[in-house]
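User: I'm curious whether this sequence folds into something compact or stays loose and floppy. Could you predict its structure so I can see for myself?
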Amino acid sequence: MERTVHLSLVIPAYNEEHRIGETMRHVLDYLKAQPYDAEVIVVDDGSIDATQRIVEAFRSAEVPAVSVVSLPENRGKGYAVYTGMSQARGAYRVFYDADASTPIEELGRLWPRFEAGADVVIGSRELPDSDVQVRQRWYRQTMGRVFNVFLRLLGITRFKDTQCGFKGFSARACDVVFPRQTIHRFSFDAELLYIAQKHGLRVDEVPVCWRNSSRSRVHPLFDASRMLFDLLTIRAKDILGRYA
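Assistant: Here's the prediction. I'll summarize afterward.
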């Protein structure tokens, strides 16, 4: 049986050759200075650039251990997160965006909530104490607001920010949530939170520092319509018992 570590950090990456190296250096420097042991799992989601080669240079069997999972084709961020979480050994497991929009130092905000009994802790850009240093373009902000209106109208979640790529789960919460995950692209966060709440898990929301990345791959029309369709799909799947 493999040894459990305190933290598994899962980083989904797709064509991130221009920023994954800096993110990895910063993440590893931070984790090496922490009093707990950790592992970093990078899931290369079918990249066609040098992402995998750059991450491979950081591979290590020492603490924090670094491993790379390479998917043969692009399956979507949600699938990459699912893959990494399925292989994680951590007592706590956090997925973290490759662009480091949320500084890795914000991990410190999660531990008090877990210690207080939370099963899932999510970063938010919409709380009063959130520190949004670089904002999204106006159309991305509009997409987010409309998306949240539909989340509430459909009764999927009460949270103000479901899409921040900084979410932590206890090992127990992972065992409940990820085997039931079905959405593999941008709406997967909302599905994960819906499943967690449906099964009575405690989900806490914490304010985080956040700096928008200018290299977003979200298409303002196609992806917005797809995400709204996914929300209707979540409700339909629940009625059919998919999340039981």
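Summary: The longest helix spans residues 222-239. The mean pLDDT is 90.
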